[in-house]
Amino acid sequence: MKRRLAALLLAIALPVRGALFDDEEARKRVEQLRIEVNARMDKLEAASRGQIELANQIEALKAEVAKLRGQIEVLTNEIESTQKRQKDFYVDLDNRLRKLEPQAGAEARPADAKPAVDPAAETRDYEAALNLFKAGKHKDALNAFLNFVKTYPASPFLPSAHYWAGSAHYQLGEYKKAVELFGKLAATWPDDAKAPDALLGQANCQQESGDAKGSRKTLETLVAKYPASAAAAVAKQRLAKRR
Fold first, then answer.
1. 21-34 pLDDT tens trace
2. Domain containing 194: what range?
3. Confidence band (pLDDT; 50, 70, 90) for 235?
4. Burial of 96 (0-12, 13-18, 19+ CB in 10 A)
5. What is d(CA 181, CA 166) in angstroms, rounded to the nearest whole number?
6. 150 and 220, same structural domain?
7. Contact present, 71 and 87 (Cβ < 8 Å)
């Protein structure tokens, strides 16, 4: 009788024990799946953060490229107008030398007359200021060009001095002052080779300061007044992108 009872209890216990083992195995598998899912989620989050950081870096690079393009435009336009400036300078130098030549019967110079400007010193000061700008010393270049404007108010380099002073303001983030100088150049010397570049620089400053409407108007003026200039070609491309 006791043997039969023991056998019966054993028969009942075996399925229960098997069920316990099955539940334990299932829990282990669930836990393993949970670990794998969490690991994959961590990888996805890391990848997502990496993509966001990459996107931010790309935007920063785009901004830097746009700034560099503006500088390239400035230097390219300067190269194109160098020959014209040199020609104008030598013509002006020749005229000045002729005026300094002694003439028969000429009256003595009044005591309060201003001494003649030294063309060599004028050229040297202008080139020194320009070299400061090219070297990236924009604050020093700005001061040098502003001093040049005061020292040589009749210089043939005056339009270019205004242009580079405006460009220095632009590089320093002083957009309002840059707009004033660019605008003065375009209004005072509309036939100068730097006038189209000045309008392009003015449009750049307006865009940087948030005046998109003013920037568009300036670009349209540039294209209308100087359609064959290199600056107008750049303006046309920008206007086309804004449509």
1. 566 777 777 788 77
2. 119-243
3. very high
4. middle
5. 5
6. yes
7. no
Rg (Cα) of the chain, in Å, rounded?
38
Return the exposure string of 215-239: e unless at least 16 CB atoms fall within 10 Å of the residue's CB, then b.
Answer: bbebbeebbeebeebbbbebbeebb
Residue position matching structure tokens 């100088």: 181
> Is pLDDT at 160 greater than 50 in this prediction?
yes
What are 1's two structure tokens? Answer: 């009788």
Mean pLDDT of 141-155: 95
Compute the distance between CA of residue 212 and CA of residue 127 in angstroms, rounded to an integer: 34
67 and 134, same domain (yes or no): no
Q: CA–CA separation, 173 vs 177, rounded Å?
A: 9
**Among 98-102, 137-141, 226-230, whose mean pLDDT is lowest?**
98-102
Each residue's pLDDT tens digit, 192-206: 999 999 999 999 999
Do both 135 and 208 map to the same domain? yes
209 — phi, psi (to 5°)?
-85, 5
Residues 54 and 146 in one domain: no
Residue 136's region, left for phi above 0, alpha for psi from -120 to 50, else beta, is left
Burial 179-208 (b: 16+ CB within 10 A, else e): bbbbbebbeebeebbbbbbbbbbbbbbbbb
Report H helices in the chain.
Answer: 2-100, 119-134, 138-151, 158-171, 175-188, 195-208, 212-225, 230-241
pLDDT tens string 77-110: 666 666 556 556 655 655 555 555 444 344 444 5
